[in-house]
Write a structure and sequence with these properties.
5-stranded antiparallel beta sheet, alpha+beta, 34% strand, elongated
Length: 369
């Protein structure tokens, strides 16, 4: 493989343009200056491209993730190694392809995880959650599926961990890799970044959760293999919204059951979509869905109690009970954030216990449900 280098000033200008004119979330005063950001990126880029061998990665200001170094071709003795490393100043991830003599054959930092905070060089704290090597576009070449775990340092979601998925396709000439930003965008926008298996299901097999967020009718959901949970499906009247069918169900992608709830009109049109899974990977068991007035305003709210599974920091499978409350408002439903900050349910909680505690929070009781 030949050493990969960007194609001169035009590419650098495009990169700088992207840094300067995308949304500046959490940017510092210094970074708000476009010239400063451009100069920072140029210096960083030059430092990255000056690294010639594996020993020089650390000298170039990058911290190698030693426990995530893998052979690109597992069955080949002389396979190049994929060496991930984080820039210690900016938290930006770079991937290096290194041969048996330690020479850098290819390097890139053009990764989805490096653009979580637009218009800024420094990115959220990151760690590598998964790396997988497989032929994802069925061209006979090994591609890379990459998932990172990120934690924002400040802002509304500071301290909350989230995943970012990416795919690097091996170039036909065998001299590096390329990304399709449209694929990476869909992987992350529609929650297909849970695991390397879910990325492969989307990219290689053509499965997708996109329809869960874009469908306009119940018929469209079922046509795409959305499975309704019939024992929790029923009609309720929601004030001015009228009579709606509460329709919980799942869609299976890879090893995950993605849980959604749709409110459907009598004509079969989707009026509202609820996404109660939150941070979790998979619906383990639905314990109940009920429609009752929780906050005492006379309108039916929606309470969901379920058990979910997710992957722990050590890769272990964890199962947790959790709930969501959606308050009915004039134009639809609003997710509760107040009670969730004060009460965490346990495996012993039932729906009746949960409703009682939620009403206690709002300071009222009702026996007329």
């Amino acid at each position: 493989m030949n050493r990969c280098r960007y194609k001169g000033a035009l590419v650098l200008a495009a990169l700088a343009w992207g840094l300067l004119f995308t949304e500046r979330v959490q940017a510092s005063p210094a970074e708000a200056d476009g010239t400063s950001v451009s100069a920072e990126y140029q210096a960083y880029y030059d430092r990255l491209m000056s690294i010639e061998n594996r020993d020089g990665i650390a000298d170039g200001g990058f911290l190698v993730v030693e426990d995530q170094i893998f052979a690109l071709e597992a069955d080949e003795e002389d396979s190049p190694l994929v060496v991930p490393a984080y820039d210690e100043r900016y938290n930006r991830l770079a991937l290096f392809l290194v041969d048996g003599d330690g020479r850098i054959l290819y390097r890139t930092e053009q990764l989805e995880t490096n653009y979580r905070v637009r218009g800024r060089m420094r990115q959220p704290a990151q760690s590598i959650a998964a790396v997988s090597f497989q032929d994802l576009n069925r061209d006979g070449r090994t591609d890379i599926a990459l998932i990172t775990s990120c934690v924002n340092e400040s802002g509304a979601y500071a301290g909350e961990t989230y995943k970012v998925g990416d795919v690097l396709f091996q170039a036909p000439a065998g001299d590096g890799f390329y990304r399709d930003y449209r694929i990476s965008e869909k992987i992350n926008r529609f929650g297909m970044n849970k695991s390397a298996e879910s990325i492969a299901a989307f990219v290689r097999d053509g499965d997708s959760t996109e329809f869960l967020y874009t469908a306009s009718t119940l018929q469209e959901l079922q046509r795409n293999r959305f499975r309704i949970i019939p024992e929790q499906c029923y009609l309720r009247t929601f004030g001015k919204l009228g009579k709606l069918q509460v329709t919980p169900g799942t869609y299976r992608i890879a090893d995950y059951d993605i849980f959604m709830i749709y409110l459907v009109s009598e004509q079969g049109d989707i009026v509202s979509v609820l996404q109660p899974m939150g941070k979790y990977d998979n619906l383990y068991a639905l314990k109940g869905v009920t429609c009752r007035d929780i906050d005492g305003d006379g309108l039916k709210d929606i309470v969901i109690l379920a058990r979910y599974s997710y992957e722990g920091e050590g890769g272990e499978l964890l199962i947790e009970s959790d709930y969501r409350i959606y308050y009915q408002r004039t134009g639809g439903f609003v997710l509760d954030t107040e009670i969730k900050d004060t009460y965490r349910c346990s495996d012993e909680d039932t729906m009746e216990i949960l409703v009682e505690k939620a009403r206690d929070y709002w300071g009222w009781q009702s026996t007329n449900d």
